[in-house]
Amino acid sequence: MIRTEEMLLNVGPQHPSTHGVFRIVLKIDGEQIVEATPVIGYLHRGTEKLAEDLQYTQIIPYTDRMDYLAAMTNNYVICHAVETMMDLEVPERAEYLRVLVMELGRIASHLVWFGTYLLDIGAMSPFLYAFREREVIINLLNEISGGRLTFNYMRVGGVKWDAPEGWIDKVRDFVPYMREQLAGYHDLVTGNEIFLARVKGIGKYTKEEALAYSLSGANLRCTGVKWDLRKDEPYSIYDRFDFDIPAREEGDAWSRYQCRMAEIEEALKIIEQAVEQFPDEGKIMAKVPRIIKPPAGETYVRIESPRGEIGCYIASKGKKEPYRLKFRRPSFYNLQILPKLLKGENISNLIAILGGVDIVLGEVDG
Amino acid sequence: MIDQMLAASPNLMNTFLFFTIAAAFLMVILGFVTYAILAERKVLGFMQMRVGPNRVGGRWGLLQTVADVLKLLIKEDTIPKLADRPLFILAPVLAFTPAFLVLVVIPFSENLKFADLGIGLLYYIAISGITTIGILTAGWASNNKYALLGGMRSAAQMISYEIPLVMSVIGVVLLTGSLNLNEIVAAQENWAFIFIQPVAFIIFLIASIAELNRTPFDLPEAESELVAGYHVEFSGFRWAFFMLAEYVYLFAMASLTTVLFLGGWQPIPFLGFIPGIVWFALKFILIVFIMIWIRGTLPRLRADQLMSFGWKVLLPLALANIFLTAIIKELINSF
């Protein structure tokens, strides 16, 4: 008779595939996972508490550091919340610039996901290909905002900098370039038998479960729920563009992959249209008082970040600092389903499932 | 020359000469390992639009690996407190000695061979099997859970893939009627076995990549899952020994593939004036390049998929290949 024992395995916080400082304690039987307990908080900086002592403009750089792969959407959500409270009209040119940088950021974020996901399941090259394209986007965003990762670009009532000369043309040229490279990715990765064997049917959940766990973004759309705030609750000027919401039915890692790759294409469509409609001139800042003091009251706004639904709740007492500020951080909510998905899986699948959820630890820990 | 020496009586002069040649050969292998690592990094860099090493030793990074090895030499040698100390020290030796032992039987050219064993092929496979024990020992002795998982995976993988590896070679052995590698090369004078035994070649190539623990079969050291697998606790020169073993096996496996399927030192028709060792080197480099190329292209399989692929696809194919080869050979002989 062979005596077997369950073993506790500590994955992270300095494990290479946990995308930062995520830790997960596994109870394993051989290579089979019996129980998984995620441990978070290694990157907690108390953004929300810090915000209570900061003026609204000063909070914006802190949001850059939450979801550092798509900082533009984070910038937007706080500005959008304050603008909603103050009933501000944002100039058209500023709105177009915002949409452009947000969609570029969405592509950059999905590219990082694509590269690191493939790296996680053992393919080394796609990572470097994806980062080459991301570099182009980062350079574009650097040109307009002066930052490569933490942009601090948006302000309440508009954006900080106007597009430099020739920037719009560069964005226009980027669209066909990215389409070409995307086709290359599909040639290299999408049809690969080993890749399909690794992701098909892995980490499956149903529509009901996804909704019950309050998943959002591609994690929700992969189960067949066509929910995208850009379409369902249009904010900014998203109602002016024609684009689809990619969704799949299967709810596994493979459909999440397909959703995200399709989202890159849709983002390119939006960029293409935004570049065409871009107003030749106009202001980039609304008339905003020097010290921003939203009226007393509460507001909650939500937008679609690359990772899902990012929300911002502000309780104001009419002072220059918020009384309470709370972010709904999509990675944090998406991560909740992990212990359920991991039960009974193989250790190799742990990586494929965790990677497929697409978390950013800066956002999870807040 | 070597033939005569093998037959000659073991006097002092002969022994000295033999050791000199063996030492020179060792240097050649170490040189290969040094530059194979550089070549791998350069080729991968080229495939991934990077430049690869380009600082130490000129713009081609020619001394990069030398510098890396020097660094490993002067690193502190750490042994975890709770590790099984004797086994921990023994494991790298167990893993790396067989890697050098197998090289004895490989004929590099008509004149350059070190032992003319009648059972050369069997010797190679038997000796290379010992490495698994070294890796398993390393995984167990480290007293680390990741290392243990890596060691277990490696044992399972190497045993499962050794079988299709051997089975695929039997086709070649049937055609030659010998296990002697010299005779196998000699039998390919007109047609290299890759044309006569294409199925066997493909099975052999896949199984050998699995034996070498290289992508897409690099599960024992899957960086993104098990951090580094069985050698996670090893540092300094102990770790270097594992790496050395890995690359010497790359050398050995590529040589064996060349010998078994690409006709060893046999030239391509009409180009016989080029010496055999050059032909061997060319074919050998082709195989090494293919292995690096595969590493740059494919993702990693999962442990269970790897097992079922080995047992359910490769093994039956290899068996069918033996069966067909035997039948066809009988038919040709009887008519």
UniProtKB/TrEMBL annotation, chain A:
Its EC number is 7.1.1.-. This is NADH-quinone oxidoreductase subunit D. Belongs to the complex I 49 kDa subunit family. Gene3D superfamilies: Cytochrome-c3 Hydrogenase, chain B. It is found in: Cell membrane. Keywords: Cell membrane, Membrane, NAD, Quinone, Translocase, Transport. SUPFAM superfamilies: HydB/Nqo4-like. It is a peripheral membrane protein. One of its GO terms (molecular function) is NADH dehydrogenase (quinone) (non-electrogenic) activity. It is an enzyme of class 7 (translocase). Residues 120-292 form the NADH-quinone oxidoreductase subunit D domain. The gene is nuoD. It comes from Exobacillus caeni. NDH-1 shuttles electrons from NADH, via FMN and iron-sulfur (Fe-S) centers, to quinones in the respiratory chain. The immediate electron acceptor for the enzyme in this species is believed to be a menaquinone. Couples the redox reaction to proton translocation (for every two electrons transferred, four hydrogen ions are translocated across the cytoplasmic membrane), and thus conserves the redox energy in a proton gradient.
From TrEMBL, chain B:
The chain crosses the membrane at residues 16-38, 87-109, 121-141, 161-179, 191-210, 247-265, 271-294, 306-328. InterPro entries: NADH_UbQ_OxRdtase_su1/FPO (IPR001694), NADH_UbQ_OxRdtase_su1_CS (IPR018086). It catalyses: a quinone + NADH + 5 H(+)(in) = a quinol + NAD(+) + 4 H(+)(out). One of its GO terms (biological process) is aerobic respiration. It comes from the Bacteria. It is an enzyme of class 7 (translocase). This is NADH-quinone oxidoreductase subunit H. Keywords: Cell membrane, Membrane, NAD, Oxidoreductase, Quinone, Translocase, Transmembrane, Transmembrane helix, Ubiquinone. NDH-1 is composed of 14 different subunits. Subunits NuoA, H, J, K, L, M, N constitute the membrane sector of the complex. The gene is nuoH. It comes from Exobacillus caeni.
